[in-house]
Design goal:
Blueprint lengths: L23 E6 L8 E5 L2 E6 L2 E5 L11 E8 L2 E6 L2 E6 L12 E5 L14 E7 L2 E6 L2 E7 L2 E4 L33 H8 L9
Antiparallel strand pairs: 1-2, 2-3, 3-4, 5-6, 6-7, 7-8, 9-10, 10-11, 11-12
């Protein structure tokens, strides 16, 4: 969107601009040192925008561990985090060409559970850093990356209790469904209860 001229430009999936999928999950703006344009996380790869075209990388290029790119976080030119549905990658773009067609090196952390990668879930939906500590949002909770190979997990644990509060008002469209057990007669219970019945004559 050109906010100065108030003009929209549509970039659909096609062979001209290079985008291979219409699902755009995340957008990250790169600094001036990397051209100042944007990089997209799509349903089929990581797409670097240069001018009016995109340089796209998929799993087959050995740049990212999975084609679904949910999150991107720029930490530095040599440390760009890319979260996917199959783990995450750390990209070094410091030696990348101006159109990002070459010069990219990467370290991938796939779905091999343990200290080397995410502890509880490989679907990396959000990434942020604060005071040198990385926070990775997954479908199984929050992961805290203290240092390479050192993680804390904040996912649900056995015995945890989830409480949900709502301020939603009642509506005429609300539907309440109840389930009950059908009536039945327990002959043994009736026979036992008869022992408790006493007959007293009326004086």
């Amino acid at each position: 969107y050109d906010y100065v001229n108030e003009v929209w430009t549509h970039y659909p999936k096609d062979n001209i601009n290079g985008i291979q999928n219409d699902d755009i999950f995340t957008i990250e703006k790169l600094p001036a040192s990397l051209g100042g344009d944007i990089v997209l996380g799509t349903g089929k790869g990581l797409a670097f925008k240069t001018g009016e075209v995109f340089q796209v990388y998929t799993k087959t290029d050995d740049i990212i561990p999975n084609n679904k790119v949910y999150s991107i976080h720029y930490q530095s030119d040599s440390e760009v985090y890319v979260g996917t549905s199959g783990g995450y990658a750390v990209l070094d773009l410091s030696a990348a060409s101006s159109d990002f067609s070459s010069g990219i090196s990467t370290t991938m952390y796939e779905a091999s559970w343990g200290n080397e990668t995410i502890y509880s879930d490989k679907n990396i939906k959000a990434i942020a850093f604060a005071n040198g500590t990385g926070y990775f949002g997954t479908e199984g909770g929050l992961e805290q990356r203290l240092a390479p190979g050192s993680w804390n997990t904040f996912g649900p644990q056995p015995g945890d209790v989830l409480e949900i509060y709502t301020r939603k008002e009642f509506s005429s469209r609300d539907v309440f469904q109840y389930e009950t057990s059908s009536a039945k007669e327990d002959a043994e219970l009736v026979a036992n209860d008869l022992d408790n019945v006493s007959v007293v004559p009326n004086p």
